[in-house]
Specification:
6 strands, 3-stranded mixed β-sheet, 31% helix, 203 residues, 14% strand, alpha+beta, 3-stranded antiparallel β-sheet, single chain
């Protein structure tokens, strides 16, 4: 994955398909994949449907490659992605957060405070959370690997059922996360400057 900093000069093309976690819309510019949204996902662009919809491109090489890689990943047949990304539609801060998300390893999770500290903005956990929520490339840019301060799943623009399914697919010990012990808040606070809060078995 190689995010690019410059905005695209032309409107994206898109491709829709059914995945193991429900319908997905992909979008791409000439520089890379710029979107992957589940049906009904919050903050999805209006241009996915309707009279102003971006053109459908069912044979576009990059979109087809992204579709195939996502299908394989969601079926448990692969563990990573190689399609180039175009994250230039975000603000500089959003882009920094999205690129930090790309560095979270499969099978591990982090917190909003840890991401903020990693970016040199330790007091910006709330702003980091907002940027995470607006991640335009679901699954491939793994915002589902970010948990609440107490280890709870918290919100996910694509739905908590999908977040749960993705973390289970990636081998995270969900009982440890979902049923956090009372001392979890203390541990999470102490770990707020660490990059990883919870680790599961990687595939």
């Amino acid at each position: 994955m190689s995010p690019t900093p410059r905005p695209s000069a032309t409107a994206p093309l898109q491709l829709a398909f059914d995945s193991p976690l429900g319908p997905l819309h992909l979008a791409a510019t000439e520089r890379g994949l710029c979107g992957a949204w589940f049906l009904g996902q919050r903050h999805a662009p209006a241009e996915l449907t309707g009279p102003q919809a971006w053109p459908q491109a069912p044979t576009h090489p990059l979109l087809c490659a992204a579709r195939d890689q996502l299908q394989a990943y969601l079926r448990g047949e692969s563990t990573g992605f190689s399609v180039p990304l175009d994250l230039s539609q975000g603000t500089p801060f959003q882009q920094a957060v999205w690129q930090a998300l790309c560095a979270i390893p499969r099978g591990q999770c982090t917190g909003y405070g840890a991401l903020a500290a990693q970016l040199g903005r330790p007091q910006a956990a709330r702003a980091v959370g907002a940027a995470v929520g607006r991640n335009p490339v679901s699954v491939i840019v793994p915002c589902h690997r970010v948990l609440g301060a107490d280890g709870s799943l918290t919100g996910y623009a694509g739905g908590l059922d999908r977040k749960t399914a993705l973390l289970q697919l990636e081998g995270l010990a969900l009982p440890t996360v979902a049923q956090a012990q009372p001392q979890a808040r203390t541990r999470a606070h102490a770990a707020s400057t660490q990059s990883v809060l919870f680790t599961g078995a990687t595939a």
